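Worked problem 6 (solution included).
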Amino acid sequence: MVFLLLAFTVAVSDQLLKGWVVAKYDLNTTVNVVGDWLRIDYIQNRGGLFGILQGSAEVFAVVTILVVLVLVALEIGSGWRSWLVTVTLGLLLGGAIGNFIDRIRLNYVVDFADIGIGTWRFYIFNIADAAVTCAILLMILIWFMSPRLGVNVSAEEKADDAAQDDRFDAEKER
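Solution. The predicted structure is:
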């Protein structure tokens, strides 16, 4: 339930904020929000995350469908054993859906958040991009820290796994 609730929250907040930006700001006009550090710069991204592969919105829309299916399968397959994996996959799903809606509806993604200092700027992004980026960072953390994080596995699950290993070994010997 956390997985779907998080994905829904990310996608809806992404769409609401994008709608507000489109209604309030002009395309390609920069407005300072918190000095030079945070600006709104409404652009139309016809590529992927970080603006890669411009003009490929249709390709990214198709890829997103596959990504959504994989994310749902991963979450179901994980058996909801790790809250960190659930949060990571929920952020990925919400971000993918938020930008997918733009690609299908507009044939581009609305990006608007511009952070940086002076001439050093991060890429212009949106809530969906931020969720995907956070999820990627969490995946890296999980990958490096997984031996230390541990997964709570009950004694029954350990016994089932051991029995399955024994069956596999017995069949292998035949």
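Discussion: The first strand starts at residue 30 and ends at 34.
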